[in-house]
Specification:
The complex is a heterodimer of chains A (110) and B (149). Helix content of chain A is 39%, strand content 31%. With 110 residues, chain A is α/β, with parallel strands linked by helices. In chain A, strands 1, 2, 3, 4, 5 and 6 form a six-stranded mixed sheet that branches. The longest helix of chain A is centred in the middle third of the chain and has 16 residues. Chain B has one domain: Heat Shock Protein 90. The two termini of chain B are 22 Å apart. Classes of the chains: A alpha/beta (110), B alpha+beta (149).
Chain lengths: 110, 149
């Protein structure tokens, strides 16, 4: 479990492996903020290998999205399974994020 | 009716996953709707435990969280109790309003109420009981929660 980071063209893709929860949200937050400080502005968080997000995980995504936008960048989400999509819909966070069905779709236009 | 499972946890967020797995594995009648278990109960219980540890017990490592779970033919009931002073769960902001959507916090109890069929707090506000109804057939998988409490 953890977060794997790779660069695809000029987009930083973060793979969330396992869960994004109260116990590890700070790690994701720090990774993205460090990259933001390094000048990265385009981010995709890829949930293909993620089974579970809790409210803290949702919260850190909201917080990161805001910070990235404040620096003129964009953060998109990709590969949410049906359970994760349900959570975003219930909390209306599907209206806040650009959510793509695949990494490739998320990369387009970024 | 006495609960089927009673245990207490240290006030350590790292113990939540194992505790939720422990409960899920022991629900022998719960195979009828795996998605409601996997999504609704798992998240609802995990949120209740996290809230108890972070807010109820104020991250105090000396405090503990008590968990009581009862498996009935058509329901699972989970009660989570912390050692804190309690709070008022009936006047919480709606995290889905435009003003609150950008806030990082405030979605835990909202999700519990959306995912579980019933959510009851005791008068003091340091104990929450979650009820998930198990449908009689496998026709419908999904959320179907919507607690009024």
């Amino acid at each position: 479990m953890g977060f794997q980071v790779e660069k695809v063209n000029d987009v930083l893709v973060v793979d969330v492996e396992g869960q994004l929860i109260v116990g590890n949200r700070q790690e994701l937050k720090q990774k993205v903020l460090d990259e933001l400080e390094n000048g990265e502005r385009k981010f995709i968080v890829d949930f293909e290998k993620t089974g579970y997000i809790d409210s803290s995980g949702l919260g850190v995504l909201v917080s990161l999205s805001k910070k990235v936008r404040e620096r003129g960048g964009e953060l998109r989400l990709a590969n949410l399974n049906e359970d994760l999509k349900t959570l975003f819909e219930l909390t209306k966070l599907d209206t806040l994020f650009h959510i793509a069905d695949s990494r490739e779709a998320a990369l387009k236009g970024l | 009716m006495a609960p089927d499972l009673v245990f207490d946890l240290p006030n350590d967020l790292a113990s939540i996953e194992e505790a939720v797995d422990f409960v899920m594995e022991r629900c022998s009648a719960c195979g009828e709707d795996p998605r409601r278990l996997r999504l609704n109960l798992r998240i609802g219980l995990a949120e209740a435990l996290a809230n108890a540890m972070l807010y109820g017990n104020a991250r105090d490592p000396s405090k503990r969280v008590k968990v009581e779970v009862a498996f009935h033919e058509s329901t699972i009931t989970a009660k989570v109790t912390d050692e804190g002073p309690g709070f008022d769960p009936y006047h919480l902001p709606d995290p889905t309003t435009p003003k609150n959507l950008m806030k990082a916090e405030g979605r835990g109890i909202f999700l519990m109420r959306k995912l579980l069929d019933e959510v009851h707090f005791n008068d003091r506000g340091n104990s929450v009981t979650l009820v998930l109804r198990l449908p009689p057939s496998r026709d419908d998988v999904g959320v179907d929660g919507g607690a009024m409490a």
